[in-house]
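Much of the work behind modern protein science is quiet bookkeeping, done one molecule at a time. Below is the pair of lines this work produces for a single protein:

***
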Amino acid sequence: MAMATSSAPLLPKPALRAASSSSLHAPNPRSRRQRATPEQHDQHVDSKWRRQPRGPPRRDEGAKRRLRSLIQREEIDDALALVDSMASGGSGKCLPVVPCNILIKRLCSVGRVADAERVFAALGSSATVVTYNTMVNGYCRAGRIEDAHRLISGMPFPPDTFTFTFNPLIRALCVRGRVPDALAVFDDMLHRGCSPSVVTYSILLDATCKASGYRQAMVLLLLDEMRAKGCEPASRT
């Protein structure tokens, strides 16, 4: 005698409906995109430019958080003292780059270039192209053109990454009427394999048009070279 197979569901129909409804409407933990915290953002930027050591000592983490907090509260002197303390204690490689870049910019903006140099030196090989650009801007604002040129010459980055670092130096030379020196820096920039931007050409064109002793031929030469490099002059240019 054959046994009758039951096609009845293991769960009653109301229970099945509830189970299917809950599975359809249950929140997916991966469906919501979480925003990165400021600390996660800083860590991402730091790791983009330098290889971080595995498992940094916990004592450095507290100092990093304190440094970020001091800079956010504009307590510049205390932040500078903490950087000096971390550097002298052998924790220079663990300095957070992004807050240090902000500290360098703040110090340069109030004319404390020597203190900015201390932070730059404390970063050492951890300095990024943004760090160099900030320091170059600080030198140029303080009129220390030769120091800016020296710093650019020693940058350990591929040429294409610091085109925008040359612009403050070229602008500073042009503002001071040193157009031949600005053109020499521009020539050095090309020899290094850097691709000038529209901003670079605009600075030089404006300076050569205003300076005496430069004829229309120089302006036309710059415009021709600008187009050859794929930079179309803007309306302001």
User: Anything to note?
Assistant: Residues 58-127 form a domain with the Serine Threonine Protein Phosphatase 5, Tetratricopeptide repeat fold (CATH 1.25.40).
